[in-house]
């Protein structure tokens, strides 16, 4: 583009010498900022072909025909000026720099680069360095940096975050190819830029998968280093520790029930010595038989003092995490192209003992120009990810939190259990504080091993040919291959849900996924006077083949021999295969008028093998309009003002094999040596008339820069119509089926996004930049199907994330109604307690630079939305929650019932409701409750219920802090180092939330919370050297 | 670099990049992981598993607490507060029954599958109706019909039971026919009888009697007496169980998916929490019943080693009692637990009777007691008790002495005799036969069920379950009409359904 423009100017200049029938000569001078003369500024006479350039001192001279008076003064990076020589005598022209965004080039769908001002839809680039305050997973670095994008960061080791763009999962695109990524195979060191296409409007060309927008990652190519080559070394060392969120426990009472506990065998032989709660005796040093009590001469346990030996068990058990990343990159730029090789190694040691992760990423990319017109660009990426052990953190005896904070108590010191085999029973029997439900945490860490290894290979080759300056063609092929192997060793004497026989197990699973994506594109661009055209015609083929295999033993014959054939009863392995293909044909055209009005349109036809044959081809369009108003109207203090509007529709397919009438298999079972394989009818009927699903999006935006670019806004309002979707239309189960696949259910998401940038201070030695992102959305059910007005519990017009729970039964005044045993009664019908999705989310990033120092810090989080705090609920049930240490509890252990629930009892009358819980009549009479009960019973029946554990999801985190010192180049002059920087960094340093027993970061619209590993802070050092 | 004929190379390269293997879409539509047709035996295994319904109705499960056979004192694992919610529909399984008939079509054992399919239909309609009241029937199961009915109307309970009885009649006829077919293969996938049609036929007729007796209050409406008489008086047409070896029952073993609920690995979870119910245990105590020593362990607190058979050491927990105190007392050893030897020491426990000989004999005794058929009620009453005793391997001498117990000796075809039949029937239902113990109580009030402060249903044993919540979302008009016609518009678990009016 630039080159073409320069050529044009040259031609026009030459012409201006030839055509010289002068009427009047005009002389003038062009100045830029601070009145510095601008050379080579184009001066043209409007409505003619006459033009010239300014000289080195900014002076120009031009001949003006008699009937012409207007000069057009243009210079790249500055605003165009129209000057009427009839009204202006002062011909010293001061050009104002144009806002950055005017010439900002962004990468749009399919990797096509476009000037940002031309776009009629919302695209936001991720600012800031991704390689310093890093997380093992690069996607976590996007947190708070893009308005409308929620990064729900997992608390767990080697677990990628969930991304939600406008509340839906976006497509992840690498180098213009929509094959996704497991997000571990990309090193931030190899990333040139990340930008986010906010909705269907921007991502329509990606086809079905782009319907929810896209996160586009562009990898580095060659180098911009002036020397034509660079060797870069980036090293990060991070320590992880110090809790952000961890459940708090009481440490005054131990295991048992109503104050009763005595260990005999940990298998139910003593008093509450198996599968126990934490409602046991108070730690008063009294003598009680315990798991490690010595034996007397008769082999009987000798009671020992009952003390809170393990008040700090979790702290003592968890270790400091380590994250080390090293990247070495070599890149070169030469006359015929470029080449870059990069090698990254990530090592992480988790905070749970015996967990580690190694990721090796190799990346090679190169571009070769065969000629001026033809080039080839290829890249290959290999990733090996290996983790010998990653514990299962779900609720259950597999979880450390379950074993140590919920159901396990302070009566044992975990450090005493580090040698976890019982003497003489090595390999057979763990040593533990209980032998039925719970496991020794160290035994789990070192013997229950869940390994994983992933090999990921992807290659891309891209051939481009320019037929002439207007027309070029690209052919591109990509293959992504992923192999994953997982296994699980489950030792003898370990027990978990469903494996209570505790005789070991071994599991293996493999999967293999091949994706290929090939496309062909023809691009045409040209200008016709004030009009410009940029058009693309293309097609692609997308193929995905997946297969997996899983097998497990049913208990082991030989302890410690982890093979699939070492199984007590024969077992059946399972496998799964799938294969689909889609073909896409698309066209897009962008029209421009001058440099202020832009119209874009796209259309795409997809053919998808997953849809019923007669409806497997579908078309969808998009159209967008943008106008740079500041080009035509001069508004005070406004440097740049653009408005935009767009509409897009995207069609999509359905889950593979989900629209077929096939039988389903139930788990086999064996009775007296015969194995039975039950099969049953799929409860959802297929529909051969099924149409593709569609969603559409309408978006309006305004972008502006004010006060000499000191302040910038980008505000977007959108409405997404999600549907008609493909859904299971619910039938009465009495029809024999639960429903049928249908097109229906339309929801509407309405949302706002605001991105604000400001540079309050900017001078040679000090600058301060602030970026703020804020977004909010709500999704409503708009239509279901035919005259049906509800989808399950949700009614048309209601928010889809409405959260219904079983509440306690209450009087009209809200008082608890309790039963004759003092326990609160539960309402038989569910009630709404709020909405699950957050009200809004926001992030703020600051960059301060003073001479060679720079300080970056960012804060982000979300506000509102409800969730059940499950770990608290469970701890209130178990008696371990810190709040359970009440005065009444002290009476429980003495056998005295003292707690009186604040509520009423029913003394007579009846409540009659209809089938949905609406009151028909209520003649109940009440009297204050006076029943005394154990506090334990109240805690379980009130605090231990969902209705007492609904909390707000509001949280904020001090996400990233980086202090960087760039060594002055003077100091490096006589060394082999070209540039160097050192950074101190921190990540997730402060967690702001009301309830700090749970880290709310990993949730967006979830209603329930799983158990979590406590979340921690990261501190570290980064060194970046360029040779 | 020297100039070369790049066009040629580039063309080759371009063609190479465009070469990919496209597959015709026709080859991609079918799911390679699932079958569109399966042998009927696999569907039969599924249906039998649903009939068996171990997870809800099986030994030491919730249904057996509702029957007051056992009590849980650990509120974390459950309660017996009778605050019932919705019962399950079985229409999805009925679709599998229909699929089984379809898959058997054309096979040489088609008649056999069809005969037991009729039994399953009767079984599931009865299963649903006795829990709920009116249910969809004439318009049910037509989602995939030419003219699909997606929101079926409800049929009144009387029509449902007329259909159930007709299906059982037809099932018996068809199985008789199927048995005469020579050289046809047996049905498979049958873990109850391994395809033995004689046993199936006895089961169908014993079940037929169960349904008829459950309709005892509707003798006038449904002509129950003559139907009962027709079955009992014609054993060649309606063969019945001749002993406990004919029982339809599930056996357990140390195998995947087949381990008994209580076993060596569950001792730590259940031992001090699962207590024998007082409603049941007190009946055994009152009659000095030898079964007590087989099913229950004495409470350690009251047990005296020098007087091991003293029944005072056998203490059941009352269903209505508050759980907290019960746990405290259990920890003090004041309750009788399920026998460690019988229930905890192996993975086999005891078989779970689905439809049994004892129940059949009690039903016949009741029919004679009511004067609906001729015969000696006492004989059948004693057969029933003996059948139950044999299930527990009680020695003959102990059985004989029990039968001479004055409380047990049959008091004749009068109310007292009927009460004895119903009481002993309850005892024989211990931990088996699904909700039958409760249904008999609901119909007759015998034995009296315990109610106490832990009851969260206004101090009542409920008379039904609610309709599934999904019906109020997906079949609103019809389910509300059903509530209107039966229960004054309220889905009230204390409302009385037609069959027990």
UniProtKB/TrEMBL annotation, chain A:
Q: Which InterPro entries match?
A: Beta-barrel_TonB_sf, CarboxyPept-like_regulatory, Plug_dom, Plug_dom_sf, TonB-dep_OMP_SusC/RagA, TonB-dep_OMP_SusC/RagA_CS, TonB-dep_rcpt-like
Q: Per UniProt, which keywords does this protein have?
A: Cell outer membrane, Membrane, Signal, Transmembrane, Transmembrane beta strand, Transport
Can you supply one Gene Ontology CC term for this chain's record?
Answer: cell outer membrane
Q: Name one Pfam family in it.
A: CarbopepD_reg_2
Q: What membrane topology does this protein have?
A: Multi-pass membrane protein
Classify the source by domain of life.
Answer: Bacteria
Q: Where is the TonB-dependent receptor plug domain?
A: 117-214
Q: Which residues form the signal peptide?
A: 1-22
List where in the cell it is found.
Cell outer membrane
Is Transport set as a keyword in this record? yes
Annotated NCBIfam families: OMP_RagA_SusC, SusC_RagA_signa
The family classification in the record reads: Belongs to the TonB-dependent receptor family.
The entry's protein name is TonB-linked outer membrane protein, SusC/RagA family
What is the organism of origin for this protein? Flavobacterium frigoris
UniProtKB/TrEMBL annotation, chain B:
What PROSITE patterns does this protein's entry cite? PROKAR_LIPOPROTEIN (PS51257)
Query: Which keywords describe this protein according to UniProt?
Result: Signal
Q: Where is the signal peptide?
A: 1-26
The cross-references to Gene3D superfamilies, in alphabetical order and at most eight, read: 1.25.40.390
What InterPro entries does UniProt report for this protein, alphabetically? SusD-like_2 (IPR041662), TPR-like_helical_dom_sf (IPR011990)
Q: Can you name this protein? A: Starch-binding associating with outer membrane
Organism (species): Flavobacterium frigoris
